[in-house]
Amino acid sequence: MLGELLMIAIALLLIYLGIYRKMEPLLLVPIGFGAMLVNIPSSDMAVNGILALFVEYLIKTEIVPLLIFLGIGALIDFGPLIANPMTFLLGAAAQIGVFVAFMLATLLGFNLAEAASIGIIGGADGPTTIYITTALSPHLLAATAVAAYSYMSLVPLIQPPVIKALTSREERRMRMKPLREVSKNEKIAFSVVVTLVTGSLVPSALPLVGMLMAGNLFRESGVTDRLAKGASEELLNIMTIILGLSIGSTMQASSFLRLDTLFVLTLGVVAFASATAGGVLLAKLMNLFLREKINPMIGAAGVSAVPMSARVVQRLAAEEDPDNFVLMHAMGPNIAGVIGTAVVAGAFIQLLGM
């Protein structure tokens, strides 16, 4: 009884943060409400309700995260990444957070599959976290999903101290030349090439990356506007509702109030901070060899919380120089981080699960 009351308090906190603090409201509100529903004393929703059906047939089968990736793909403009392919490296560098958390999790006694599910939180990508946890460690789904989405909403609080600690005021003021315009044909070719390369090298990542690129092809083809609109609006909204309520429904007191959950939440913070640091430090290293220097803050956007990480970088740049616009430059590593995290998740599944 006490555990259920504590979980209801946590659920109400998530709802409060979503509504009144506007912290990832589209997810924290339904997650909080779902958690409240299943922790009401004498409630049978966790066993027989529609939420249990959502979890069993839409989450555990990985349908929802894949369809969310389809919708995300229909929203994303890959132009900034294509215009500056070098930012792929920054998106890759940010994945260091995944491996830092992975190694720490193993030291804390988690097995490799559990450590991979925890580590992927550092990619700041909720659907990917759910996808890999469902495949490798379904018993950790509630903890990893809540950690991923909660910390995504805290990106504006977690990243700035790390960025400022690793950069000087002069570096944060650095300006970059405007990106070149990317053609429609380049964007179409990008979706096809990335899908083919991923399928050849990391087949287990293909479901995620393939859905992402399919959605983007709908967006960029110019002849499937209805599909792009349906994927990015109606479908994405419906899947987000199902996802939030379903994840909330897995937060039963008996399975959530455990020491493992505290470890997962702690490692999530470490993962985010180290991912931010990895991107910034690689950008600083690259500047030692580049003729046209890059603002090292854009490396922090390799954390794939799109577009929050890029907006954080822009805000910090504007604080030092109100006329400095680096948002589109930051979107390059931000988008690369989405692809990078999906590939790392696929590699984990390929090595540890299937």
From TrEMBL:
Topology term for the membrane:
Multi-pass membrane protein
InterPro entries this protein is in?
OadB_MmdB
Decide whether keyword Ribonucleoprotein is in the record: no
Q: Which Pfam families match?
A: OAD_beta
Where found in the cell?
Cell membrane
Look up the signal peptide feature and give its range: none
TM ranges are 5-21, 27-51, 63-82, 88-110, 188-214, 235-256, 262-282, 334-353
Organism domain of life: Archaea
**Keywords linked to the UniProt accession:** Cell membrane, Membrane, Translocase, Transmembrane, Transmembrane helix
* The keyword Amino-acid biosynthesis belongs to this UniProt entry's keyword annotation: no
The name of this protein is Sodium ion-translocating decarboxylase subunit beta
